[in-house]
Design goal:
Number of domains: 2
Radius of gyration: 23 Å
Distance between the termini: 28 Å
Number of strands: 16
CATH architecture of the largest domain: Sandwich
CATH class of the largest domain: Mainly Beta
CATH topology of the largest domain: Jelly Rolls
Order of helices and strands: EEEEEEEEEEEEEEEE
Length: about 220
């Protein structure tokens, strides 16, 4: 790298014991030429408040973690048939792209690094049968297998063939290894989280049953 080149990795402002790096042109000096790409474990001397310490690149420069996930299958209201009834865990069987956020067991949004994250989703619901009137759907968030208080929201679907889109977000504070699941439930067995294939005339893309994005914000 040499003594005057900036480190070529993505980073965000990071507190370092009362010191803050904010200049995007910040350079580190005294580094030997590293391997390509940098692993984050390279060490260098840092002078802080008159004290020289050894630290690593990944302790200062931290690329934000993120992930985009979806599911291209219709997900039915199987929970209504359980005794007692249970919530339906939203399945996320496709990973579009991700860094540091993974899906385990087809549903567990797993965080590898502690921080504050924005979990945002949209899901397409359909009332596939039944008589007239309204059907209710509830959606909430679970952490490590337990419901998170005050995360539930209700929406309604009109009549047979009616559709509704749920789309909102939660801001969560996570430790490394925590996992989150989105859950839905309806007292109407005809309600489903619906997938639609691509269409033509005009050309239109698929409608996933659910899309989830996870973004580290701090």
């Amino acid at each position: 790298m040499g003594d005057t080149q900036a480190i070529g990795v993505a980073y965000r402002d990071q507190d370092l014991v009362r010191s803050r790096i904010t200049d995007p042109q910040f350079t580190l000096t005294g580094l030997s030429t590293p391997s390509t790409p940098l692993t984050g474990s390279e060490t260098f001397a840092l002078n802080q408040s008159g004290v020289t310490k050894q630290t690593t690149i990944d302790q200062i420069f931290t690329a934000a973690h993120y992930g985009m996930f979806q599911d291209n299958n219709t997900q039915t209201n199987v929970g209504i048939g359980q005794v007692p009834p249970t919530g339906n865990i939203m399945l996320l069987r496709t990973t579009d792209f991700a860094q540091g956020v993974t899906i385990a067991s087809n549903s567990r949004i797993t965080i590898s690094r502690a921080g504050t994250y924005n979990i945002q989703f949209s899901s397409q619901f359909l009332r596939a049968g039944g008589a007239g009137g309204l059907s209710s759907v509830e959606i909430w968030l679970m952490k490590n297998g337990a419901n998170i208080a005050e995360t539930n929201t209700h929406l309604t679907i009109n009549n047979n063939g009616g559709k509704a889109v749920a789309a909102w977000n939660w801001l969560i504070q996570s430790t490394a290894g925590d996992y989150y699941q989105l859950v839905w439930y309806s007292t109407d067995a005809n309600v489903e989280m619906w997938y639609s294939a691509a269409a033509t005339n005009p050309a239109r893309p698929e409608t996933p049953s659910v899309i989830v994005t996870v973004t580290q914000v701090a």
